[in-house]
Amino acid sequence: MKNILSSLISFMLILTSSQAEDSVPPIIPLRDFFRNPETTGYEVSPSGELIGFLKPVDHRLNVWVQPKSGGEAKQITNVKDRDIRGFFWKGDKYVLYLKDNGGDENYHVYVAQSDGSGSRDLTPFEGVRAEMIDDLEDDPTDLIIGLNQRNKEVFDAYRLNIETGNLKLIAENPGNISSWTTDHAGNIRVATTTDGVNTTLLYRKTEQDAWKPVITTNFKETFTPQFFTFDNKDLYGVSNIGRDKAAIVEFDPETGKETNVLFDHPEVDVSDLHYSKKRKVITSASYTTWKEEKKFFDPVAEQLYKTLEGKLPGYDVYVVSSNKAEDTFVVRTITDRSLGSFYLYEANSGKLTKLADRNPWLKEDQLTEMKPIEYKSRDGLIIHGYLTLPKGKPAKDLPIVVNPHGGPWVRDEWGFNPEVQFLANRGFGVLQMNYRGSTGYGRNFWEAGFKQWGQSMQDDITDGVKWLIDQGIADPKRVAIYGGSYGGYAVLEGLTKTPDLYAAGVDYVGVSNLFTFMKTVPPYWKPFLDMMYEMVGNPEKDKALFEENSPALNADRIKAPLFVAQGAKDPRVNIDESNQIVNALKKRGIDVEYMVKENEGHGFHNEENRFSFYEAMESFLAKHLISSSKS
Q1: What's residue 523's pLDDT?
Q2: Helix (H), strand (E) counts: the chain
């Protein structure tokens, strides 16, 4: 621990001097951080002759298509209510995308023709959510989707013809299947079931055979299929069975045995496995330490990345799309200070053509680096995180915004974050931490957060703030806390549990009452309720725990001013969660600002709503952190 602390202190001393040497950048217009990109989401068609991308039309991202050889781009969708967040090609003739209504997360599948001749809703069912199972890349008209049309709590598998709109039920969910897996021919041959706590992998040799259970584990130990081996016999997957850190393994579904470990990492979970569909070889695995890294298995893929990194030095490089021949690629660059650019790379000629900058109005030299940090919690657990400090200012007595991530069963990663860069540009230091319960650091770290909402998970956040204060970086009188979803809960719990630590809080679609939160989860979460009871707590068996750690029930402890933002159609954190905390504080005369957007759900996705929220947050933080330093 002594070595860790001394290295961190040295890092801070270096950081302090380097920050002081930089010039203070200009104030960047708030909307430049949060406006829709100029263009984004580039995808090359299967032939490689067409390029699709997203571009705003009347402030809504729509799909455009242009020939690779050049020429005018054509708008092929005309969505006006919400952005299209992503799309995929179906041959060169069709583009498909998912879109919900006002944030309700009941996504529909839409198809548009690449020549711009029209688009249709293929799943026009009220209150029904569609999920992708297999895009059947080699089939010209069909794909496999999941729909909870028959039973809102579970998803049946359907074959959908995008030309006729015909839906054919191909696998009915008996009520306990949480996911389906196809082989390389598009046959559904693996399913995962849950009883709420235990998970069973089901397997069948062909679609005509009966399902048979292969392996059953408690939800804490899982084998998650990635895809079949290329002979369609075994499975590649991510497994933490019998180990702390998840590894990439090969698994025999006939015997239920792991046959080979392809790759593991001693410090973090390995998350994904990638392959070449054309060459039928495993190419790489992904894992995240303080930033995403790759383990290559294939010299062709490794050389491709080395070539691209040589052509684009100083950036993290990602191949985001390729044609079927795997000789034409869309490449994306990114850093912690840039949303990067898109390029077209033609491997046969070695030609690299810039397609577009994603957000050209943001200049890298005006933004600031996101540095990895670690500190020790009060019970000795090492907590990893990130610290972003305002450019051109000494790292001393700064106003700080503590930003715990949502989830909570995800993790923060290094990369460009518009919220963080905006706050740093306004003179705030930003502290992000992967508190216990965050994923990516192994099973033990994840389980250390079970039934710890508002307790040791919150202590990890508090200990990070105190660490920053002890380092002299944070002004103890000017620390705010901001977060969304679980992060919003952490805001409310921080103001409740440590009322003198924070000068202000911003709660964005956060949970305020554990009792009501558990009662209002979406219907398709209900099969997982027993698991939620083990991870969060049971409203009946853990009544005292819920009472102590529900901010709405302990609002009398809150002293600091609060800003709350909520989407009216949020299916995950019901609007009543925000109503409860706001009403409880208003009764006591506490300064609380409340913003509700009627056409949003779990987070604000429409551009004008993002502007409204961040403008209000900027004024709120300036009032309670910046102004307070002058009084």
Answers
A1: 87
A2: 13, 35
Residue showing tokens 């040295």: 10
How is residue 593 written in tokens?
A: 């600002």
DSSP run (H or E) holding 547: helix 543-548
The residues spanned by each domain of the chain are: 39-175, 372-630
CATH class of 372-630: alpha beta
Burial class (CB in 10 A: 0-12, 13-18, 19+), 257: exposed
The reported pLDDT for the residue numbered 525 is 86
Listed as ranges, residues in the chain with pLDDT below 50 are: 1-21, 630-631
Query: What is the token pair recorded at 583?
Result: 């009403």
**DSSP β-bridge partners for residue 385:** 373, 433
Give the closest residue to 502 by CA, choosing from 527, 483, 521: 483
DSSP annotation of 27 reads P
CATH pick for 39-175 out of 3.40.50.1970, 3.30.420.40, 2.120.10.30, 3.30.70.3270: 2.120.10.30
Per-residue pLDDT at 483: 98
The confidence score (pLDDT) of residue 589 equals 84
Residues in CB range of 508: below 8 A, 6 or more apart? 482, 483, 484, 485, 487, 488, 565, 603, 613
Give the Å distances, CA to CA, from 416 to 22, 237, 412, 490. Answer: 20, 29, 11, 23
Cβ atoms of 411 and 384 closer than 8 Å: no
Which residue from 87, 107, 108 is spatially nearest to 96, judged by alpha carbons? 87
Which pTM value belongs to this model? 0.93
Task: Give the phi and the psi of residue 366 in degrees, each rounded to 5.
Answer: -95, -5
Counting beta carbons within 10 angstroms of the beta carbon of residue 128, is it exposed (0 to 12), middle (13 to 18) or buried (19 or more)? middle
Strands 247-252 and 370-376, sheet pairing: unpaired
pLDDT tens readout for residues 186-207: 999 999 999 989 999 999 999 9
Distance, in Å, from the CA atom of 606 to the CA atom of 495, rounded to the nearest integer, reads: 29
Reduce the DSSP state of residue 14 to 3 states and report it. Answer: helix
Q: pLDDT tens, 327-372?
A: 999 999 999 999 999 999 999 999 999 999 999 999 999 999 999 9
Give CA–CA dist 531/217, Å, rounded. Answer: 13
Per-residue pLDDT at 590: 82
The CA-to-CA distance between both ends of the chain, in Å, stands at 40
444 burial level (CB within 10 Å; 0-12, 13-18, 19+): exposed
Question: Which pLDDT does position 629 carry in this prediction?
Answer: 54
Question: DSSP letters of 50-101?
Answer: EEEEEEEETTEEEEEEEETT----EE-----SS----EEEETTTEEEEEE-S
Amino acid at 99: K
List active site positions: 485, 570, 602
